[in-house]
Amino acid sequence: MILTSNQKLLTPLITLASVLALALTACGSSEPKSKQADAKSVSKPAASAVATAQKQLMSADRAYNKTMSELSQRTETTMADQIDTIRQARTAVFDYDAAVRKIKMPETATTEVNAFLTASADLIAKYDAQSAVTTADAFKSANAATTTAYAAFTEAVSSLSDKIGALAEEESKPKTQQVEIQADYVIEEGGKQLIDDAAAWRDDLLEIGSKNAVDEVAGGSHLIVESWRAALPNLSVQLVGYGVVAPPNGLSGHTVLAVDPKESPSSKNPNYLAFAVKDRHGVCAGGVLIGYPAPDKAEKVELAEGTACSGEEVAKKAGYFNE
């Protein structure tokens, strides 16, 4: 299979079992792997389909690696032994391919799945060619093509594993259940949805955020911003950073921080999100969502006239700002 310059020779022929051990090291580290049917389109999965596919891929991967591990322990002393190992490795790849084809794969993994199919088909063909030779020299010659095919196969397996893993991780993240709301302070102007009342908008953002905030790693929005977007999905709003003044029809501050950023969040050092909003008239309103582990307690904050309309100024006024 995969031959290297420092491979031992048990006979004048090449020792394949030791090669399989090297191949297993290269490929066995990738856990979930998958595949779809040829180059045809794949049906879009249900919400839990990615997790199901990942579980099935891991099962197929374990079966494949078990066979490869067993083959790597074989001792070969004749040409016939080596050819037999090649054929069993070929069967392992074929069975792996067949198992993966039965899995309902996510549509977004089409590229990686088809690359896997191409690589596995090519490796099987190279195994067939190498197992058909009759001399040691021919075996060595055929091995160069097998080595290249195996490297491509290993890369395709890893890419597919990474893709399915990333999709499964994304699917497992908490998602907001917030639905779209009807707000009488939102007006249509020039084909855009604009805010006509900053205070009313602020009040809704506080209510929506407090109901949807979840325990999440510091630095994220704890689903607060996601729920805001879900509530008013067509709003033409500009989000800017905590220290930046909100523009008209904009919002300043969209990241959750700990009151003391030098320490880990706790009941005595809660998470908070301070924000300021400005309507189309330039009127500003501020609010804070604070709590631990989820920042789900709402506080209205009124800034003095002439104060910069920013999340940072809101945090200072509320007494939570800490450099």
Structure described in brief:
This protein is α+β, with helices and mostly antiparallel strands and 323 residues long. The chain is built from 8 helices and 8 strands, in the order αααααββααββββββα.
Describe the structure.
With 323 residues, the chain is α+β, with helices and mostly antiparallel strands. It has 2 domains: 16-171, no CATH class; 186-318, no CATH class. The protein is built from 8 helices and 8 strands. The chain is elongated and about 90 Å long. The chain starts with 15 loop residues before the first helix and ends in a 5-residue tail after the last helix.
If you average the pLDDT, what whole number results?
84
The number of helices is 8
Helix fraction bin: 40-55%
Mind telling me the C-alpha Rg?
30 Å
Largest sheet: 6 strands, mixed
Decide which structural class fits the backbone. Answer: alpha+beta
Distance between the termini: 60 Å
List keywords for this structure.
8 strands, 2 domains, two-stranded antiparallel ribbon, alpha+beta, 6-stranded mixed sheet, 323 residues
SSE blueprint:
Layout: H1 16-27, H2 49-72, H3 79-101, H4 110-131, H5 136-172, E1 186-189, E2 192-195, H6 198-212, H7 224-231, E3 238-240, E4 250-252, E5 257-258, E6 271-278, E7 284-291, E8 297-301, H8 311-318
Parallel strand pairs: 3-4
Antiparallel strand pairs: 1-2, 4-6, 5-6, 6-7, 7-8
Helix pairs in contact: 1-2, 2-3, 2-5, 3-4, 4-5, 6-7
